């Protein structure tokens, strides 16, 4: 990060610092702040905002992507130097494994534990709380797959999508209920005098995220415009014995392929070339389809949206490889590597596509299907 700042790339340095150090540290601190008091049967102060912000930070903590970047950089450096892994590498690997376990933890259980503690301390019925605690939780179905039962615009006239004329179940939206995006509680938005605020975590409630399709489309257009210089401009400048050479993303893929490291070439190509292209195409499709209200293949589109959310962060791999290579290669007049303008453009593409994915409201996918089911063409 210091090397990036010294070479005039403070924005790239900030991206690397936040995603590999600051956000993981804040996430670990939030886990400790929440879990230790809950274990002792107490609800810590500011529980809701801490847990709410921890959920928002989760996608931006990229230690596993950084670990893959370390491995790619080590393989790349073996052609010019003898690389000896230090103890910090193994410690970082252990940290990655532990954070992976934490990422698989259901945060909904923490909200329920907090409610149980408050009920017990506030004079709730201990027997009822105990029964709820020891009753196995039924696994929640995937939200996008069942969101069509939550998003009908007219429950009275809605019929099933199979076309057999069966009346659809009454939806939460038709009943005037909203589900919180943060803690998943379903509630009436007008129950609170403060307005459409979640009664549990304080998050703002929306039937649909305001201008979701338009904002997603704007972010996708910006990312697509930056994707061109990200691939055409060099991400690194290499100088060795007075000879200068520019390195682009595709040049790095070609280097690994011609060197015989075809598995790494495939990994870098998928993470840095294929995934960004697919993200842009899928997000553009989602924004256009949501804007037009098309009922076309809602289940497949919902699955594509979940896929984009899961794999989008891995595109940051090339940015991490650039940062690590620049920090390691300082051989004076013999060899030096400096960052190129393509690194900033590519980092911006990753950030913008992740923001576009978060901005898109997947419930819009099912609105068109519900309208089509409620008013089938004759």
TrEMBL record:
Q: Does the keyword Nucleus apply?
A: no
Q: Where is the composition biased (Low complexity)?
A: 145-162
**Where is the stretch described as Disordered?**
127-166
What taxonomic ancestry is recorded? Bacteria, Pseudomonadati, Pseudomonadota, Betaproteobacteria, Burkholderiales
Keywords from UniProt, A to Z, are: Cell inner membrane, Cell membrane, Membrane, Transmembrane, Transmembrane helix
The places in or outside the cell where this protein is found are:
Cell inner membrane
What name does this protein carry? Paraquat-inducible protein A
The record lists the membrane-crossing segments as: 12-36, 57-77, 89-111, 218-242, 262-290, 311-331, 343-360
Q: Which species does this protein come from?
A: Burkholderia ambifaria IOP40-10
Give the superkingdom in one word.
Bacteria
GO CC terms for this protein?
plasma membrane
**Keyword Plastid attributed:** no
